[in-house]
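User: My collaborator sent over this chain with a note saying "see what the structure looks like." That's all I know about it. Can you take a look?
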Amino acid sequence: MEGFRQEIIVGAVLLYMVFCVVTGIWAMRRTHNASDFFIAGRGLGPIVIALALFSSTLSGFGFVGGPGLVYSIGVSSFWIVAVSSTGYALAFFLVAKRIRMIAEMRDCISLPDVVAARYKSQTVRLLIAITIVLGVMGYLATQILAMAVVMQAILSGTEMFASIGLVTCVIISSAVLIFYCVSGGIIASVYTDLVQGAIMIVAGTLILVTATSVFEGGMQEATSIIVADDSESMMPFGAAGIIASMGWFFVFGLGLAGQPHLITKMMMNKKISDNRTILPMSVIGYLMAALLWVSIGVIMRAAVIDGRIAPLALPDDAASVFLSVFTNPLLAGVVFAGLFAAIMSTSDAFLNIGTAAIIHDIPKAIRGKSIQNELFWARLVTALLAAVAAAFALYSHYQDATLVALLGAFGWGTFAASIFPVVAIGLNWKGATASGAITAIVTALTINLGTQLFGITFPYGMNGQLVAFVSSMVLFMGVSLFTAKTKLDQDINRMMDI
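Assistant: Without extra context I'll predict from the sequence alone. Here is the result:
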């Protein structure tokens, strides 16, 4: 079996690609209008929502970036896992019930729809929509490039596709992504998330078992090797330090309730009471899948220190090298298929909310009404958005490596700083005003983009995302306290009393 390792991995990835095409065709038959395309008609069950939520959180970042963080900064990155698990509870407590109620009362199909209803402001709708579009472009370009690079690495290891180029891989992966996104919309995305979530749970458990067998003394021996080489990295706050580690509570803990691709899924469940089961299932699934994050990072760092393998060219190579060196070929195939599932489903989710912002919310904010035949335009804009993101990815790779990084400045941290105060606080505090929301969003966008453009640094290891989050929160509450209160509509007022 070891002699056919590469063929098994390629077969697993191709099987997943076929699954995506079939899922798109199946979902297309269930997609009849814009509500189906963007929020699955608010008819999904708790298991589907739970797996879709946690798998969208980990995504390609959990598969690739997580082990790389452990490899490079040690225990510091464990704080991301810990605070993100508490973030689910905060998100459900602050957002899930109220956003689902507003979605049904006002027939909302997007997050900007919800904030427009809450604040009675088209300016707030427009700013949230712009934030989503900017953030989505960064995420999409990064995801498409990552998918193409992984595909090239897998296919170039075979005799038939040894000379395959990156452009070809971008075209193939984008074509599959566009087909199933355009045909099935969010329905295709969440059912892909269902499969991805199941793969991540199984892979996390099996990878942990495999990782513990690399060293005779298991994880304890691996940890001891790292401590002997660099004790600071295995201390409670790791190499990043206490300020950075605690700062992740704001960005990844509180900030989880500000991620549009996650909280939009909270509008899709069939019954509000399903939240009681969705939350624990999401947290348990997340923690099991995160075993892959922790175990690969620790083992790879210990293996390099011990001389079992050569130092990695990049920290993000930790997962792929581990799969190539230490795992059974079948398990490697499953995990690589899971990686593609993670990237593909996350890309679909961002394509979906980006398209909604472009064809539904921005026209509504400017013209007072959305465009005609939304389903047709949703499919067309989805394809165009994916094509533009793929072009950005290739241009950045070959000509300007800073482009995707600049667009990526409007990623998780910007969503957290821009959306958390406006949604998570605003849906629970009647005193929140449109002026406060506008100030918070503009502040978050300005700080996050400014730190990327001008390379601004802050003392004590604070990053721009943390500064943007705190500044946005303080100004949101401060401006709201000193501006005229918005008279809430009767249905919104009753909802906030519940």
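A starting point for your reply to your collaborator: Residues 166-212 form the longest helix (47 residues).
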